[in-house]
Structures are given as structure tokens and as C-alpha cells.
Design goal:
The protein is of the alpha+beta class. It contains 19 helices and 21 strands. Among the domains are: about 150 residues, STAT transcription factor, all-alpha domain (Glutathione S-transferase Yfyf (Class Pi), Chain A, domain 2); about 140 residues, STAT transcription factor, DNA-binding domain (Immunoglobulin-like), CATH 2.60.40.630. The longest helix is centred in the N-terminal third of the chain and has 47 residues. It is elongated, with a radius of gyration of 36 Å. The chain starts with about 25 loop residues before the first helix and ends with a strand.
Length: about 675
């Protein structure tokens, strides 16, 4: 029976201890499960049977409280078996101490029949225990799978682990008392050899080992994109609580980092764990990589927290073909050894896969590796095998979860349809491959789908979060559909929408209906531009924008200032021209405007090339930033006006060697008025 996804072959030694049968129901009673109604005492052990699902059948989804209910029911029924065993032991002792009697043979045969009936009941109880254990392990695997999904931003109920722990504690009580009962039954020696009972003992012992082993998990995962020389935290938890008494002498948990190949070798080949040699198998050097387990009496949590770990060095494998360091997966390997009643317990577990980076520019591709793995990994697998293609239905869910968790608003059906089109190639398919996702450049582009998607996600989170959450940004829509939707709008001229650029990484553009009834597309703005002037203020400056086309197809256009007003920054009213006596400068502000025909721009939607020597950052040839003093041009003196006109001639096409450059230089040196216009 598999344990958990990454320690299926762990074989700790946990055998040989006895538990006081008087504590049989202690754990189940402490969990306060529902009272079992309608289950009377079982007086004839020969007719006792515990119904169990057929082994090998798929376990149906059940609620954890139902599992706890079934475990308690089985414990109650096993209590009757224990009573029968106690009576058998008394009769056996009486038979050994009594003198010969004419009924001795009949009594002996009666004891054999009673013992056989108890063995049969125990076997049925054990089969039922196995089915219950399988249910609990199934829930733990689901919890771990949800934990991986949470790495992509999916909702995650961490508190359900407490319910799973209660099930583990109840199962531990069940199997411990069953083990004690089997050993007690073996003391009633009526025949020389009892292979069936010996086999049952081995099964129960192995079941207990597996239970203890599978209860050791990573409850707080480390960062899955891990940068060297950066502090991080993680924690492991043992879901047996105080059941084995280990908390009285808590062990120390060690941590190393393993490569994918090392992890595969350890799991699939059942490598024996030797604590002295494990440190030599590490693929890197981790500081503060040990922690002593602590037991919290109030919530029964038995865990070890690593609060200040730091990966100092990493050893990488040789790369093949197009592999990069951002494709290479590692995992943190946690292990410990402790002793229970003179028997050693060795347990270990692996974290979710991590990608190790040394530079920030490695982060986007690393997140592609992690996002794909978290979304599409099988619950049980060899580390860290993953499919290289998925259906669009699967990928669309993963992308929606990722983008929604990062930005606070999910994608619409239209958004997802657009993303699907971006992923398609000449031969259309419902399947999307790993290469299409993050390795192959998109058609007619120099970047991959994931690079484009990640850059947009980052831009939205860093510079447009509030506007995106408020539904002010249409986002993922192609240029043709944007034009069609705008031209169909009943509000006509001045109607606009914001869409993510599909030609530039991390860019957002505005499409609007101009005064001629045509659609104009402003060249994209990126994070560099928003560091100078934010998006909302840029929209406020553009008087050609009047009505925001809604991102919801069922909504109506909204006035620009109503939609974006809450995101405008406070702008000071123009003040009279003031020369700073200290710096000798006049303060300036920034404004954006759309260039008209003849201003090295176009309102037709087909931009002209701007003069490269005068470009500022990523300013498009269709939009400009004007730096101007509070004094307006018409209020300036004639020298200042001449200076502004001369500067404008350079901006709209004068050559660098034009003699007017000298005129501008002289004028700027002598004038108190300064104006700069960039397109």
C-alpha cells in the first residue's frame, strides 16, 4: 500500500511495544466523534464480522468525519474481540493449571474453536483497518495535491490537516491494540505451529510501520523558486501527535537538498537511509538545516520549524540539449531517527519540487517549470516525472488560477479564448505541449507564450492592480476584436478600452474611436513608463478618451473619470512661474497627449517611426509627454516663445546639424522660461 507521494518505500522500524488495553478508546473518545447508534454488543464472537470494502476497489470520496465515525465503530467492535480474547486467556490458564478431567479433550477442542474464531475476527478487523487506512492516506494525498495547487494560487484549507491527524491518531490506537491482541493470542499455544497467526502478526507490524512513516510530512513548503543566499522557511509535522510518546524525547530533524536524479534513486530503489552518509548526498549547502521537534499540548501538533534556512551553494547536473538551469528540479529532503521502546524509527519526506536560481532574470522561466509541475503532476509519481502535454481545458484552469491569485481578478471566457489562440500553431490541436507553453517563440515573435504571459501578470500586479480588479482593463483581447467592439459601441467617438500588447513584453495599449470614427491604437506603455507617470494619470491627460468600453459584455460604457477617478493621483494647480533661488530651476510637471497628423504621429492607427534621438523610454510616436512650467505659453514673453518654437522644430524633424541648435542653446541659457516636449 503506498504511503505518500514521496516516501512510499520508507521502512522505519516500529515494533515490539505493548499498549494497555484499558486505553483502547482513549484516542477516539478524545476526538469527540458522533455517537454510534444502533450497534449493540456482540455476544458470540463466532458470528462476529466486520464488513469491509472489497480490497482493490476504488475508495469513494468520503468526508473525514465519516472516516472518524467508521474508525470509532471498528474500535468499539474490536473491543468485543478483546473481551473474547481475555476470556480465552482465562480458560487457557485454567486448563493448564487444572488436573486431568474427563472433559479435558472437549475443553481443549472448545478452546481451539474459540481461538480460531478470534483469529478470523482479527483478520476481518485488519482488513477493515486497511480500508480505513487507505481512506485516510487518500485524504492526505489529496491534501498534498491541494498544497501543490496552492503553490499556483488555488484556495487551500490548511486546517483540514488537523482532521487528518485525528484520523491518524485513531488508526494508531487501533493498530497498536490489534498488535497487542495478536501477541496475546500467540501466548495461547494450543498447537505447535500457527502459520496463519504468524502471518497476521507480520501484517499488523508492517501496517503500523507504514502508518507511522506516512504520517511524517512537509506541512509548510519552502519557496519553490529558491534564490541562493536568500533566507527561507519550512516546517515538517508528524501526524501521530503524542501517540508513541516520542514528544517526551523529541528528535532532531535534518534537511538536505537533493537533485531530481537523487530523489528518484532514493524513492524508486528504496535506498537504505544511513544518517551518517546522507549529508554527503546533498546537492548543495544549506545553513541552519536542523531543528528539534516540538509538541504543542493545546492543539496536539508535533512539528519542527526551520525558520532561517539559507541555500549557500548548489551542485547542478550536466545539461542535455536545450535544458537550462531553470528546468532543473530539486527538493528538500527532511529526515530523522528516534527510538520507541528500544526500537528505532527512521522516517523521511520530500518537499514539493523547487528550482534554484542565482539571478532575478531567471525567475520567469523558473516559475514556468513550477507552475506546470504544480498544476499537472500526478498525486503519486516518481520524482519529478511530469507530462509534456495537457489539454487546453486543463491549462486554462491553471492559467486562470495563476493570474487570478496574482492580480485579484479571474480571467473572462473571452480572455481565455484569446490565450488559446496565442498558443496555437499551424496545426491546431486541443493539446498544448510544454514546448508551446514556454520553450518555442510564438509565431512572428521573439518571446515565448509564458514570457509574454508572465510579463503581463507582473505589470498588472505592480502597476495596474486596482484598475484590473475594478474591471477597468479589458486585457487579453486581440486587436481585430478590439476594433470591432469599439466600432459597434453606441457611444462612438471617444470610446476606448485597454488591452495587453501582444507584440511587446509587459505592455498595455489603449484603443479608442477617434474624431473620424476610426480606431486608433496607441503604442504600448510598459513598466518603465509607469515609473514616470502612472496609467490612470496618463488616461486623465488624454482628452480624446471619454467612455470606457466595459470588460463585462453585459455592462454599459462608463464615463472615463467615473471609471478611473479613484486611481488619479493628486495634481497641484498651476502656479505662477517661480525660479528656485537655490537650484536655479523652474519646476515642471508631466502630461501625455496624442500626436496629430503632421506631428510625426497618426490618428489612423498606423504609427509612424519617431526620431530615435528624441525618444524617451518607451514613449510611442502616437503619444507624447510634455514637460512644462506652470506658466502657459501664451503668457510667456517673446523670447520664451521663440525658444519653444525652435525646440519644437527639432522634435518634429529638424536634423541634428540644423543651425537652429545653436539658437536653442543660446536661448535656453538666457531665458527664464523652459519647455521641453518629447514625442
Amino acid at each position: 500500500m503506498p504511503l505518500n507521494p514521496y516516501n512510499m518505500n520508507n521502512t522505519p522500524m516500529v515494533t515490539g511495544y505493548m499498549v494497555d488495553p484499558s486505553d483502547l478508546l482513549a484516542v477516539s473518545n478524545s476526538c469527540n466523534p458522533p455517537v454510534v447508534q444502533g450497534i449493540g454488543p456482540i455476544h458470540n464472537v463466532q458470528n462476529t464480522g466486520i464488513a469491509s470494502p472489497a480490497l482493490g476497489m476504488v475508495t469513494p470520496k468520503v468526508e473525514l468525519y465519516e472516516v472518524q465515525h467508521q474508525i470509532m465503530q471498528s474500535l468499539n467492535e474490536f473491543g468485543n474481540c478483546a473481551n473474547a480474547l481475555k476470556l480465552l486467556a482465562q480458560n487457557y490458564s485454567y486448563m493448564l493449571n487444572s488436573t486431568s478431567s474427563p472433559n479435558a479433550e472437549a475443553a481443549y477442542r472448545s478452546l481451539i474453536d474459540e481461538k480460531a474464531a478470534i483469529v478470523l475476527t482479527m483478520r476481518r478487523s485488519f482488513m477493515y483497518y486497511e480500508s480505513l487506512h487507505e481512506m485516510v492516506i487518500h485524504e492526505l494525498k489529496n491534501w498534498r495535491h491541494q498544497q501543490a495547487q496552492a503553490g499556483n494560487g488555488a484556495p487551500f484549507n490548511e486546517g483540514s490537516l488537523d482532521d487528518i491527524q485525528r484520523c491518524f491518531e485513531m488508526l494508531e490506537s487501533f493498530i497498536a491494540h490489534m498488535l497487542a491482541a495478536v501477541k496475546e493470542l500467540m501466548r495461547v499455544r494450543l498447537v505447535t505451529e500457527e502459520p496463519e497467526l504468524t502471518h497476521l502478526l507480520e501484517q499488523v507490524q508492517n501496517a503500523q510501520k507504514n502508518l507511522v512513516c506516512s504520517a511524517f510530512i512537509v506541512d509548510k513548503q519552502p519557496p519553490q523558486v529558491m534564490k541562493t543566499n536568500t533566507r527561507f522557511a519550512a516546517s515538517v509535522r508528524w501526524l501521530i501527535g503524542s501517540q508513541l510518546g516520542i514528544h517526551n524525547n523529541p528528535p532532531t530533524v535534518e534537511c538536505i537538498i537533493m537533485s531530481e536524479i537523487q530523489s528518484q534513486r532514493f524513492v524508486t530503489r528504496n535506498t537504505q537511509m544511513d544518517n551518517s552518509s546522507l549529508s554527503g548526498q546533498s546537492s548543495g549547502e544549506i545553513q541552519n538545516a536542523s531543528s528539534t521537534m516540538e509538541y504543542q499540548q493545546n492543539n496536539h501538533v508535533f512539528s519542527a520549524s526551520f525558520r532561517n534556512m539559507q541555500l549557500k551553494k548548489i551542485k547542478r547536473a550536466e545539461k542535455k540539449g536545450t535544458e537550462s538551469v531553470m528546468d532543473e528540479k530539486f527538493a528538500l529532503f527532511f529526515y530523522t531517527t528516534t527510538t520507541v521502546n528500544d526500537f528505532q524509527i527512521r522516517v523521511w519526506t520530500l518537499s514539493l519540487p523547487v528550482v534554484v536560481i542565482v539571478h532575478g532574470n531567471q525567475e520567469p522561466q523558473s516559475w514556468a517549470t513550477i507552475t506546470w509541475d504544480n498544476a499537472f503532476a500526478e498525486i503519486v509519481r516518481d520524482p519529478f516525472m511530469i507530462t509534456d502535454r495537457v489539454t487546453w481545458a486543463q491549462l486554462s484552469v491553471a492559467l486562470n488560477i495563476k493570474f487570478g491569485s496574482c492580480t485579484g481578478r479571474s480571467l473572462t471566457i473571452d480572455n481565455l479564448d484569446f490565450l488559446y489562440e496565442k498558443l496555437q500553431r499551424e496545426e491546431r490541436s486541443e493539446y498544448i505541449t510544454w514546448n508551446q507553453f514556454c520553450k518555442e517563440p510564438m509565431p512572428d515573435r521573439s518571446f515565448t507564450f509564458w514570457e509574454w504571459f508572465f510579463a503581463i501578470m507582473k505589470l498588472t500586479k505592480d502597476h495596474m492592480l486596482g484598475m484590473w480588479k475594478a474591471g477597468c482593463i479589458m486585457g487579453f483581447i486581440n486587436k481585430t476584436k478590439a476594433q470591432t467592439d469599439l466600432l459597434r459601441s453606441v457611444y462612438g467617438i471617444g470610446t476606448f478600452l485597454l488591452r495587453f500588447s501582444d507584440s511587446e513584453l509587459g505592455g498595455v495599449t489603449i484603443a479608442y474611436v477617434n474624431e473620424n470614427g476610426l480606431v486608433t491604437m496607441l503604442a504600448p506603455w510598459t513598466a518603465r513608463d509607469f515609473q514616470v507617470l502612472n496609467l490612470a494619470d496618463r488616461i486623465r491627460d488624454l482628452d480624446v478618451l471619454c467612455w470606457l468600453h466595459p470588460s463585462d459584455r453585459n455592462a454599459s460604457p462608463v464615463k472615463r473619470d467615473v471609471a478611473f477617478g479613484e486611481f488619479y493621483s493628486k495634481r497641484q494647480e498651476p502656479e505662477p512661474l517661480v525660479l528656485d533661488p537655490v537650484t536655479g530651476y523652474v519646476k515642471s510637471t508631466l502630461h501625455v497627449h496624442v500626436c496629430r497628423n503632421g506631428e510625426n504621429g497618426s490618428t489612423s492607427g498606423t504609427p509612424h517611426h519617431a526620431q530615435e534621438s528624441m525618444q524617451l523610454g518607451n514613449i510611442s510616436p502616437q503619444s507624447g509627454i510634455t514637460f512644462y512650467s506652470p506658466a502657459r505659453l501664451e503668457e510667456s514673453d517673446s523670447d520664451a516663445s521663440e525658444t519653444a518654437e525652435a525646440l519644437e522644430r527639432i522634435v518634429i524633424g529638424a536634423q541634428p546639424n540644423d543651425p537652429v541648435i545653436s539658437e536653442i542653446t543660446d536661448a535656453l541659457l538666457t531665458s527664464n522660461y523652459r519647455q521641453y516636449v518629447y514625442y
